[in-house]
Specification:
This protein has 280 residues and is of the alpha+beta class. 48% of the residues lie in helices and 11% in strands. The protein is built from 10 helices and 5 strands, in the order αβαββαβααααααβα. A 5-stranded mixed β-sheet has the order 2-3-1-4-5, with helices on both faces. Helix 2 runs antiparallel to helix 3. 30% of the residues are buried. Mean pLDDT is 85; it is low at 20-40.
Length: 280
């Protein structure tokens, strides 16, 4: 074998080894980038003591397609089970302070594709316990299949600033989805009870202090609430609420967020993009 043949043979072997290593490196980079969004998207539950939460759980399969008749019987059953689960979860734990409850629900709605609540949990486990128990009951007693698309989403809201807009957002879901013209026409929500109309499901709400500040008497509060439901939210308000809910962050002014950061179970806003700044 000539020197040229030896060199050529070595070059071929080297090129094959290099191509193999490059292929492995490319596969590693590709698979890592494909898995990163899934890994990063799963956040731990966001919780802070005595802070209202907006919660939304979506059904894996809608109870009915949009143009089909409203599945009234199924919605009645889910709303009734929701009320029973809330009453059970809201019972104060042994040794709790007088007047304290494990869960206070301020607004709710059940639609063929979702369950949405505004509530103040008394501890970090009351809302997960409520949603898990309700999901199991719906799965075993009604749907006989997978119930939800995944874990529910939640956002923390600043009292005095975002509780009332979030209540309007919750109770207007049926209007936004085009199922009714007025929020109080949808019987599977808290809108009718807050507006003073005949409500099919009532008696288990605990009004937030922000709602009490709407008027000195029940009639004044109900009249004020009817006006809020008719006026609705601005597009910017709705976008801010939806961004916080889908991102599972907190919504409020800078002072509130700075204070909340020290109490929350995890970070309350997205991490800054890019690499962290070097400190000297």
């Amino acid at each position: 074998m000539t020197d040229f043949s030896i060199v050529a043979d070595l070059w071929i072997k080297f090129k094959q080894s290099f191509d193999f290593l490059f292929f492995r490196f490319f596969c590693h980079i590709f698979l890592s980038s494909a898995q990163t969004p899934q890994t990063m998207s799963r956040l731990s539950r966001l919780y802070a003591p005595r802070i209202p939460q907006l919660i939304q759980a979506r059904f894996h399969q809608p109870l009915a397609v949009y143009d089909a008749p409203i599945p009234s019987a199924m919605l009645d059953t889910i709303a009734r089970w929701l009320a029973e689960a809330i009453r059970s979860t809201a019972m104060p734990a042994a040794g709790a302070a007088p007047g304290m409850t494990a869960l206070a629900v301020h607004a709710w709605v059940v639609l063929p594709d979702q369950i949405t609540l505004l509530a103040t949990p008394g501890d970090a486990q009351s809302l997960p316990r409520l949603m898990q128990g309700l999901g199991r009951r719906i799965g075993s007693g009604l749907l006989r299949s997978r119930v939800l698309t995944g874990r529910y989403h939640n956002a923390l809201l600043e009292p005095g600033r975002w509780v009332l807009p979030a209540m309007v957002w919750v109770e207007s879901r049926a209007v936004v989805s085009g199922r009714v013209m007025q929020a109080t026409q949808w019987p599977w929500s808290s809108a009718a009870e807050h507006a003073g109309d005949n409500a099919m499901f009532s008696g288990w709400l605990r009004d937030h202090p922000d709602f009490w500040a709407e008027g000195d008497t029940p009639f004044a509060r109900q009249a004020a609430w009817r006006k809020r439901l008719v006026s609705g939210l601005s597009p910017i308000q709705a976008q801010q609420i939806e961004a916080a809910l889908h991102g599972q962050w907190a919504l409020g002014e800078k002072i509130f967020l700075a204070h909340l950061e020290r109490q929350a179970s995890r970070r309350i806003s997205p991490a800054p993009r890019g690499r962290p700044a070097h400190t000297k």
